Amino acid sequence: MSTAQAVQLDQLDVKLIDLLAAEPRIGVLECSRRLQVARGTVQARLDKLLARGVIQGLGPQLDPVALGFGVTSFVTLEINQRPGHDPVTTHLRDIPEVLEAHTITGSGDVLCRIVARSNSDLQRVLDQIVSHEQIARASSIIALAEKIPYRVLPLLRSAAGTTPTESGSPAAGGPSASGPSTAGGPSAASASPSAVRS
Prior knowledge:
Layout: H1 11-22, H2 28-35, H3 39-51, E1 71-79, H4 86-93, E2 98-103, E3 110-116, H5 119-130, E4 135-143, H6 153-160, H7 164-172, H8 193-196
Antiparallel strand pairs: 1-3, 1-4, 2-3
Helix pairs in contact: 1-6, 1-7, 2-3
């Protein structure tokens, strides 16, 4: 979890991120044309957003379902905290099906989002997770249907004091994307660095 100070964003920042989220393969030159600002301004804004961590990455966004992992589960772990969280974190990081893990308050200690190919394959993944001696218990919930995918753009617009209409109309000439539609992980914009910097 980041503890960095909040970055002040203006409408141009929001419009740029909106455009990159809606059309990940768009280049800087086309961004400047759509936003009606100089190419250097777009590049400078993009560099600033990357440097300050507002945009976490420009790599491709992956869909676990398309990769054959159609089951998503949220797992709460109770661990022996005396050795600390690092050994469990290292163990979880070595399991590819663990998409993310967070330490939490409450009755559990760690909350994970995991994927599996099927319900029976989920058992295999859970067995692998609890094989660590520091993990005392795991409680899992299977997700049935994704109603709201992971998203950040509405939060971005709210923080910058803009609306979808204000941020979307100059960028793409219509409604802009509200955020990633997959459960693979967060990303403000999904494009290759070469595509964005062309």
